[in-house]
């Protein structure tokens, strides 16, 4: 196996595939990068058994400057190989595999020889032959991931909550995540969906890596499912992830239908205020920020307090404030994550009582995106 390629084009795909490679895997060969050269081009594969990524570098794309002298396959130690490629001196590089899987990498006057492994011992990727596929624009899918994955649990005690629950019924794609302290739910109406109905849980870690692979020049992302795997196709890259097994809790009953107090804020301005209040709350043990609302005076105030450092108080300017007087405490980090997910828009926050979860929705599209936060009991 021998080929020459443009180093920048190779490095771009290498960086994507490396997202799936972990040094902590229990299968030694999975710490390596699999390279296969054939008539269609060069295929790079990385996997940690949970996530697998495969990328094809086309031989007929002049930008890749890919010239394959002889076909073949090899598995190379990913970390060393990646460091070598990043530091090679010239724009192009040549990789030549000789007997005993020894691999020579040359660029300009630099030459490295590293030991490879037999690619036949590399685990096969799952075969997903599902005919029903969901296709979403890349920017919409990336936004959906970023808006929901913030609420997945990081605690392995309830593994099912470490994923995002996707359901598809009648062209309505619903994504929900909760860690039992907060919840994020996003709904998308698909323009033309397959006839299938989906009900799957995709690990949050997988979705985070996937969102980093979706760039602005990826117009569409295609999603296919099998029994225990999901496959995302992004241009010439394939992203496989295992699915989580089990039943996701019914989260619809957690969302309050009515409110006794509601307020409208500019999301960006409120985020800045919560960030200021949390400067002091982070210094205290309980990390709590308090919000008071008084519709009679049309006044809202936010408080942050640390017994050791001091306190902060700031008057807010709600666009609208109606309902009962209220004093409520919450974790500012949850609030900041929620507010960032709205971007630059106006939001409505609806409260039912000081100890009941409250919801945040955009004022213009309140049916399709909801963030929910459970308050903190301070007495």
| The first-level CATH class name of the largest domain | Alpha Beta
Oligomer: single chain
Rg over CA atoms, rounded to whole Å, is 25 Å
* CATH homology group of the largest domain: DNA Polymerase III, subunit A, domain 2
Number of strands: 26
CATH architecture of the largest domain: Roll
Strand order of the largest sheet: 14-11-12-13-26-25-24-18-22
Word description of this protein:
- InterPro entries: DNA_clamp_sf (IPR046938), DNA_polIII_beta (IPR001001), DNA_polIII_beta_C (IPR022635), DNA_polIII_beta_cen (IPR022637), DNA_polIII_beta_N (IPR022634).
- The chain is of the alpha+beta class and 379 residues long.
- The protein has 3 domains: 2-121, DNA Polymerase III, Chain A, domain 2 (Roll), CATH 3.10.150.10; 133-242, DNA Polymerase III, subunit A, domain 2 (DNA Polymerase III, Chain A, domain 2, Roll); 255-373, Proliferating Cell Nuclear Antigen.
- It is 18% helix and 42% strand.
- A 9-stranded antiparallel sheet has the order 14-11-12-13-26-25-24-18-22. Strands 6-2-3-4-17-16-15-10 form an 8-stranded antiparallel sheet.
- α3 packs antiparallel against α4 and α5 (267-281) runs antiparallel to α6.
- The radius of gyration is 25 Å and the shape is elongated.
- The mean pLDDT is 92.
């Amino acid at each position: 196996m021998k080929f020459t390629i443009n180093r920048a084009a190779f490095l771009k795909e290498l960086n994507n595939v490396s997202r799936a490679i972990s040094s902590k895997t229990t299968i030694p060969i999975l710490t390596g990068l699999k390279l296969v050269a054939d008539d269609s081009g060069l295929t790079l594969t990385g996997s940690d058994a949970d996530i697998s990524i495969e990328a094809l570098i086309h031989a007929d794309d002049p930008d890749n400057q890919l010239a394959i002298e002889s076909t073949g396959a090899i598995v190379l130690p990913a970390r060393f190989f990646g460091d070598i490629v990043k530091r090679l001196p010239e724009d192009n590089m040549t990789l030549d595999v000789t007997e005993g899987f020894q691999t020579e990498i040359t660029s300009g006057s630099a030459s490295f020889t590293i030991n490879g492994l037999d690619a036949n011992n590399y685990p096969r990727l799952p075969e997903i032959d599902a005919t029903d596929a969901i296709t979403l624009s890349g920017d919409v899918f990336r936004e959906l991931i970023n808006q929901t994955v913030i609420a997945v649990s990081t605690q392995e005690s309830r593994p099912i909550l470490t994923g995002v629950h996707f359901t598809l019924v009648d062209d309505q794609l619903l994504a929900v995540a909760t860690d039992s302290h907060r919840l994020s739910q996003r709904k998308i109406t698909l323009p033309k969906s397959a006839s299938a109905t989906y009900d799957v849980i995709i690990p949050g870690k997988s979705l985070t890596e996937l969102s980093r692979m979706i760039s602005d020049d990826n117009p569409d992302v295609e999603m296919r499912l099998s029994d225990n795997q999901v496959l995302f196709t992004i241009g010439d890259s394939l992203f496989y992830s295992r699915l989580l097994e089990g039943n996701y809790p019914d989260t619809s009953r957690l969302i309050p239908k009515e409110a006794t107090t509601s307020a409208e804020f500019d999301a960006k301005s409120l985020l800045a205020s919560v960030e200021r209040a949390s400067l002091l709350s982070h210094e205290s043990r309980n990390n709590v920020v308090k919000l008071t609302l008084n519709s009679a005076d049309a006044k809202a105030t936010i408080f942050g307090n640390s017994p050791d450092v001091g306190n902060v108080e700031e008057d807010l300017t709600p666009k609208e404030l109606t309902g009962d007087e209220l004093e409520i405490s919450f974790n500012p980090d949850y609030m900041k994550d929620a507010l960032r997910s709205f971007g630059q828009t106006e939001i409505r926050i609806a409260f039912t009582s000081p100890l009941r979860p409250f919801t945040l929705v955009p004022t213009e599209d309140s049916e399709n995106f909801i963030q929910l936060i459970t308050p903190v009991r301070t007495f």
